[in-house]
Amino acid sequence: MKKQLLILLALFSSQCMVIAAGKKPVIIGIVADVQYAKGVQDNIGRHYSEGIVRLREAIDYFNSVDDLSLIVDLGDMTDRNYSDYGEISAVKKEARARFCNVLGNHDFFPATSIEEMEEVIRLKDLKKPYYSIVKGNIRFIFLHSGDIATYSRPKDSRELKQAEQWMNDLLSINAKSARDYNGGIGLEQLKWLDSELSAADARKQYAIILCHMTMLPFDTYESLWNSMEVVHLIESHHCAKAVFCGHRHSGGYSLRNGIHYVNFKGMVEGENNRFAVVTINPVNGTIIIKGHGDENDHHLQCR
What we know:
Strand content: 15-25%
CATH topology: Purple Acid Phosphatase, chain A, domain 2
Shape: globular
Structural class: alpha/beta
Number of domains: 1
Number of helices: 7
Strand order of the largest sheet: 3-2-1-10-11-12
CATH class: Alpha Beta
Number of strands: 12
CATH architecture: 4-Layer Sandwich
Radius of gyration: 20 Å
CATH superfamily: Metallo-dependent phosphatases
Helix content: 25-40%
Largest sheet: 6 strands, mixed
Order of helices and strands: HEHEHEHEEHHEHEEEEEE
Distance between the termini: 44 Å
């Protein structure tokens, strides 16, 4: 009897350890809108040529953080020529943690052909423009907000024609988001997002969505073209806890129906650097954002 009890206790302890391991906090680093441009003179408060130095400063800090799982680039690593990505790649290799990249609008400049656009995706170390990874009990879902856009689709493609029509429709109603540096998420990616969130629901995971363009507030100069549709989809899944984005360099924060929308500041702007370390804790239901330089701190409670 005593032996059976010890076996049961051992099994229970082992199961608890597995559960605890799955739900332990996950720590990630965040950078947004580095927009490095070699030899380009700084203007309007933007420090294009300093991007390499600022990125290295952030990576040096991330390397000092114990148990950092990922470093996330929220898009726009380069500003106007994706050939500058060679220098960026060399600096990224100094990171100890895995880099997970999001495509931004500037990342594509000045690509026009399908071959050049595929090269951009390769340089960003991506096999697909959108994807997900799971760390512990957290599913990170990386979206391509320029899925349907005038800068990310080659000439004469069906998707380019769709983007042009979308832009015209937005212009006809005087939408602020009707800008050629914005874009929208297409039907195929929306279906994929829904399936990813459903999988997270079924496994009782936290879902963190990462995207270049902003979703809230609706219809700003930096908004995703179909932000309302995407937000409604995200809100229909209880697993969704937060959306992290870049694009609006001034940053911002919104709370809607229990989901946190955090807009991280652009590293290219301002006299001081801007990056963050984020701790997501499924055990106590918190997301702690520690901003560095001019980035803000946030202490968020998950629904």
